[in-house]
Design brief:
Layout lengths: L1 E3 L8 E3 L2 H7 L11 E5 L5 H14 L2 E4 L5 H8 L8 E3 L4 H9 L4 E6 L6 E2 L9 E6 L8 H4 L4 E4 L11 H12 L4
Parallel strand pairs: 3-4, 3-8, 4-5, 6-8, 6-9, 7-9
Antiparallel strand pairs: 1-2
């Protein structure tokens, strides 16, 4: 570790080296627990899928995506860790997939959307059972026929002028919260 002096008069922080971090973390990537999934079911940009795949590795989650023609290439390109990752293929009908998932025992489906009945991200509890976080289309959000299959809707408060965050940023924030890491 190397010391970093604070310019604010606080005690010096110790910066951990990559070797230190490796010793403190798990020895190998997680196996697919199927406990926490992020599901961008209406993807628009491949780069966002790659970012979400990286976040999945960081929090021990899996990615559920439709097998559109361009998605496998986007995931391969976005997998900067260059090792096998946990990906579930949902098929071509996202609403049908949601219905099937909801029928599984002890599964909570959380939608990330601006809605009257949404809770704030800070009030979202960590996942205690199998949880799927559903992300909508970059522009149109989660379609109305899918909203009715959600157990909970969460929104990310914003102070700026934009209406929402992109799918990768929103999904990463929600994953960290559901994983209990923030």
């Amino acid at each position: 570790m190397r010391e970093v002096r604070s310019r604010f008069g606080m005690s010096a922080a110790r910066v951990r080296s990559p070797k230190d971090l490796k010793r403190q973390r798990r020895l190998r990537s997680h196996s697919c627990w199927d406990h926490l999934l992020i599901a961008p079911l209406w993807p628009k940009y491949g780069v966002n899928l790659g970012t979400l795949l990286r976040t999945c590795d960081a929090v021990g989650a899996c990615l559920a995506v439709p097998k559109l023609p361009w998605v496998p290439d986007a995931l391969a390109h976005g997998n900067t860790l260059k090792r096998r990752t946990c990906v579930h293929w949902t098929g071509h009908d996202p609403v049908r997939w949601l219905i099937d998932q909801k029928q599984r025992d002890n599964t909570t489906i959380v939608g990330v959307e601006l809605a009257d009945e949404s809770i704030r991200l800070g009030d979202l509890p960590a996942a205690r059972n199998r949880t799927i976080a559903v992300l909508g289309h970059e522009r149109n959000g989660i379609p109305p026929d899918a909203i009715e299959h959600l157990d909970l809707v969460v929104e990310i408060p914003m102070l700026g002028t934009g209406a929402s965050l992109n799918v990768a940023v929103a999904g990463s924030l929600v994953l960290y919260r559901l994983a209990g890491l923030i």
